[in-house]
Design goal:
Length: about 375
């Protein structure tokens, strides 16, 4: 008995699995994805699609215990598709993705105590702990690591456990301290209203790691809000504002003596299903709006509606980082900010670095695919 019933249609093979699932496999797709078309070691495609007859048709198709074997009319080529591979690759459905963790949207009721905490030593030393921490970071967009060593490279070590750092115009990593000659408001003692970092980049950095080395000054507390929550509430309660914010690209720009980095992008970017994918919100580096003046009144209404929500207590979670803690958050989802601090009252020093979303997801997929360790006898 086979677990797959097949029928040869005009342009595609129709398949029905024992559990009732169905799939349609167009013939050209089957030829394009014949297992022999891929390099056995690199798994990259090595057959030239233009060398394949676009009208290729099977002259035979047989299902065995583990394979669908197709003999092709014309060149007589034989393709052997593992049934498990066919089940996983059904046209019209995305391949299962262990990194596609559904966001759990949060508001103020999460509270600082609701931010998941993990021990840095476990994340560094154990793949399962690493995977658990990364999964929660993707789900909530924010987690805190505790027990970090008291030196800047400790945060980098954790970030590099995930993947390559994302360098920016501020360098491979950055020191958040009050500086005499700041090129960024973060490097002063002023308050920072809720924002995302570097929305002026074509692709803003994904995950931000802020490792607290010292936080002795009066003030300097941290603030966080889930940008997806604000976007979803706007969609529900102020749909016109949501539409403007997701459709109208606005200019963002950072410039100093060395750089002038600009982009036009919407405040809310949506994925293919229309769900929030990315938030760019940073009132201090939003550039001079340049949309047509006739839409400006409506745009300002929308932009102020978003900004107003960033001030509402219902979205905000406040905490004060202590030395040895590192907050890790998705900078393209979570807005962060800080209270002003008094540099005369004590030293404040955060060490930061970034990592792109794609590298984070890649690491999680590789961790999910690894075989469990054999249990020692
Ligand atoms: C930053 C920033 C927060 C802080 O460096 O971009 O937002 O707590 N810092 O100093
Ligand atoms: Zn910031």
């Amino acid at each position: 008995m086979t677990s797959l019933d097949i029928a040869l249609g005009v342009d595609a093979l129709e398949a029905r699995w024992a559990d009732g699932r169905q799939a349609t496999y167009p013939y050209l797709w089957l030829r394009d994805n014949c297992p022999s078309a891929f390099h056995p070691q690199t798994q990259e495609r090595i057959v030239d699609l233009l060398a394949v007859d676009p009208d290729a048709r099977p002259h035979s198709a047989v299902v065995t215990e583990e394979f669908l074997v197709i003999g092709w009319a014309g060149d007589g080529h034989v393709s052997r598709f593992p049934l498990a591979w066919l089940a996983a690759h059904r046209p019209g459905e995305a391949l299962a993705d262990p990194a596609a963790i559904a966001p759990r949207i949060w508001r103020a009721d999460l509270a600082a105590s609701g931010i998941a905490r993990h021990a840095a030593a476990e994340v560094l030393g154990d793949d399962q702990a690493l995977q658990a921490w990364m999964t929660e970071t993707l789900r909530d967009g924010i987690t805190i690591l505790e027990g970090m060593a008291d030196e800047p490279r400790a945060g980098v070590e954790v970030a590099q456990r995930v993947g390559f750092l994302r360098p920016t115009n501020f360098g491979p990593t950055f020191e958040v301290v009050n500086r005499p000659d700041p090129n960024n408001l973060a490097f002063t003692a002023l308050s920072l209203p809720l924002h995302t970092d570097l929305p002026n980049q074509e692709v803003p950095p994904g995950f931000q790691f802020l490792h607290c080395i010292a936080n002795e000054a009066t003030g300097g507390g941290s603030l966080f809000a889930d940008g997806y929550a604000i976007a979803c509430d706007l969609r529900e309660e102020e749909p016109e504002a949501f539409r403007m914010l997701s459709e109208v690209a606005v200019p963002f720009r950072f410039h100093d003596r060395e750089t002038d980095i600009r982009v036009h992008a919407p405040v809310i970017a949506l994925d293919r299903r229309g769900e929030p994918l990315e938030i760019r919100f940073n009132a201090h580096i939003a550039a001079v709006f340049d949309m047509p003046p006739d839409i400006m009144p409506a745009y300002y209404r929308a932009y102020r509606a978003f900004m107003d929500r960033t001030r509402q207590a219902g979205y905000r979670v406040a905490l004060k980082l202590i030395p040895g803690e590192m907050v890790v958050f998705d900078n393209r989802r979570i807005l962060h900010g800080r209270e002003a601090f008094d540099p005369a009252s004590g030293f404040r020093h955060l060490h930061g670095c970034y990592l792109d979303r794609g590298d984070f997801a890649s690491r999680l997929r590789v961790l999910a695919a690894r075989k469990p360790e054999p249990i020692a006898a």
